[in-house]
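User: Please fill in residues for this 71-position structure.
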């Protein structure tokens, strides 16, 4: 339980520097059951796919910014 609290604090600090946060719905999962790893991966993939338009937009903006700096 203390590990979980530390992880949540770490996530909160890192959110400040993130351009995009992918947050899969992991509710109802028991992380002590290694058999649920495939379910967690599937949920992570689904969350990433939902964020793909925003990710692509951020990448495009980075490319535009980089090209503008090079001129």
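Assistant: Residues filled in for all 71 positions:
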């Amino acid at each position: 339980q203390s590990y979980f609290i530390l992880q949540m604090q770490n996530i909160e600090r890192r959110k400040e520097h993130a351009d995009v946060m992918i947050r899969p719905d992991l509710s109802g999962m028991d992380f002590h059951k290694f058999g649920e790893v495939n379910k967690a991966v599937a949920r992570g993939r689904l969350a990433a796919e939902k964020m793909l338009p925003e990710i692509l937009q951020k990448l495009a903006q980075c490319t535009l910014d980089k090209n503008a700096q090079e001129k």
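For context: Residues 37-70 form the longest helix (34 residues).
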